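Dock zinc ion; give full complex structure.
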Amino acid sequence: MLKRIGFTRNDLLLIAVLLLFAAVGVWRSITDAVNSVNAVSAVIRVNGEVQEVLPLDKDSETTVTGYNGGVNIIVIRSRIIYVGEADCPDLLCVKHKPISDSGELIVCLPHRVSVTLE
Amino acid sequence: MITAKNLAALGLLLAAAVMLSWLESLLPPPVPSVPGIKLGLANLPVVLLLYSERRFPRFVLNALTLSIARVLIVGFMFTGLFNVVYSLSGAVVSFFVMLLCKLTKKFSVIGVSVAGGTAHNLAQLMIAVAVMSEPRLMSLYPVLIVSGIAAGFIIGVVARLVDLILYC
Ligand SMILES: [Zn+2]
């Protein structure tokens, strides 16, 4: 079927190589997760610069002012972190699933805000 | 020379690209908050144009213009200008990668479109890393490769089918 519409061996090779690259990345994040120590704090950065370091064992709500004056409210509830509210145009940070393991991150591209667990 | 017929076809393709982008913006993102993850449906008209040398005298230039015009129109109309820089880098990088892959004559339209879809996503990720100075974002690249392959594959197959229908 695929051959009949012109799919070639080179196409297949290209897809295989790309998948291999992806697999390497997945493997690395799995080994990173296994080897990582438990995260103790949520680090909030704006434009790559650390704004706040919040302890995970204390519930909190922190208002962060991002690039362009945009606001994100970072919520910590029993060691789980999420963005409760934001005034960015896409609201992808608010829709992002809560994070709790080190290595996970939430970003708000329009406000250049990132939350990582370290 | 570009004919009136060509111009009309270009207009239609641009309208289709804008419409597909709009459709895409209504769908929930497949992976929330991973920058650049979209189905990339709007790439279909660009791929079609890249493969219409028999109908368009300056199809390469037209395809590039189409992909840039699409990003700007969609940016102004729906998504807001903040992510025009992401969409634009994605569109331009994807275009040149597809053009190069096509020129090698080693891939079918499906392979070319897969390369374009992947390049689109990875370019956006790199811009995001640069703008936010957040190298940790790079860890998202496997998801972006896989979604780029999937979108590129679908678009390549559809482009091939459209081509077969138009030329049978
Ligand atoms: Zn946001």
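Observed: Chain B is about 75% helix and 0% strand.
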